[in-house]
Design a protein that fits this description.
alpha+beta
Length: 126
């Protein structure tokens, strides 16, 4: 696990992993708030295009404010690995929810929220 204490964060636990990134629950020490930290996997840090894509994601997301889109607090780099500090949204992952089974009503509610967020981002040119 990456040590982000020099940047003011204490990583608590891994909460997700994808093809390119790892996500951790962390504490932003100065503000004493829980955040999510998304870190580009080290195997991608040698690729300038992958690093720029990761940073562009943070920049684009930081330009919009919508209840169904996480708020970006900071984007930075430590030891050559870019990271994004963002709002920590409580709840379970979409994968876990789908594995447990989703009612039609909940599925429609989630679909509407996702569609609204995508429409909003599209309206903002993202």
């Amino acid at each position: 696990m990456l040590d982000l204490s020099a940047k003011g964060y204490e990583l608590n636990e891994a909460i997700g992993v994808g093809g390119m990134c790892e996500v951790y629950k962390a504490c932003q020490v100065a503000l004493q708030r829980n955040v999510a930290i998304k870190v580009l996997k080290s195997k991608f840090t040698d690729s300038p295009s992958q690093c720029e894509r990761f940073i562009l994601e943070a920049r684009n997301c930081s330009r919009i404010a919508h209840p169904n889109i996480v708020e970006i607090y900071e984007v930075d780099t430590l030891e050559g690995r870019p990271f994004i500090a963002m709002e920590l949204v409580p709840g379970q992952t979409m994968r876990k929810l789908l594995d447990e089974g989703v009612t039609m009503k909940l599925g429609l509610e989630l679909f509407i929220q996702i569609a609204e967020a995508l429409a909003y981002a599209h309206q903002k040119g993202i």
